[in-house]
Amino acid sequence: MARVKYRDADVDLMARMMRAEAEGEGKQGMLYVGNVIVNRAVADCLDFTDVRTIEDVIFQVQGGNFSFEAVQKGNMFYQRARDTERRLARQNLEFWRDHPAYYALWYFNPYAPCPPTWYGQPHTGQFKSHCFYEPQPGTCDSVYMG
After folding, report:
1. Where is the Cell wall hydrolase SleB domain (predicted)?
2. Which end is more exposed in the chain, N or C (fewer Cβ atoms within 10 Å of the end residue's Cβ)?
3. For the whole model, what pTM was predicted?
4. 120: phi > 0 → left, psi -120 to 50 → alpha, else beta; which?
5. Cis peptide before 115 (omega within 30 of 0)
C-alpha cells in the first residue's frame, strides 16, 4: 500500500521537484527530498494541516512564498520529468524512507555547517549540502505513523 494516495500527474510533479532541488546530490539526494515531500503530505500538524496531496505540498505557500524555492525560481522544475526521477518518485510514494530524512519535514542548504535546530526543530542529519530536520517529539505524531 502506498504511503500516500497519488496519480501519475503527482509522480511527474514530484519527480520534477526532486530533480530541481537535488539533482547535484545524485539519486540518494533526490530520494531524501522526495521523502520530505511525502512526509509533508502524511503529516497533519504544524505547517502541514492543510496539505494532503503531492500537489498541495509542492505548491504550498508559507509567509507569502512557495515552500519550495524551485517553484518560483527554478527553471529546472519546469522541465519535463525524466524516467529516472519518475522511478525515484514512485519509490518514495510507495515505500522508500531513510535516515536522515525518515521523519523529516524540512531541509535546506545553509552553505555552512548545519545548525542544531531550525525554527526550533531538531537536526536529524545531513546528506551532502542538505540539512534535514524533523518535528519535536510530541508535536507531530502523524508523521511518525505515516
Report:
1. 24-133
2. N
3. 0.96
4. left
5. no
Q: Write the CA distances from 27 to 48, 61, 66, 80, 143, integer angstroms.
A: 26, 27, 24, 17, 23
CB burial class (10 A; 0-12, 13-18, 19+) of residue 118?
middle
Mean pLDDT of the chain: 95
Closest CA relative to residue 17, chosen from 112, 107, 129, 104: 107
Tell the residue number behind the cell numbers 508559507, with chain if given: 62
**Contact predicate 10/56, CB 8 Å:** no
Which residues are bridge partners to 131 per DSSP?
108, 126
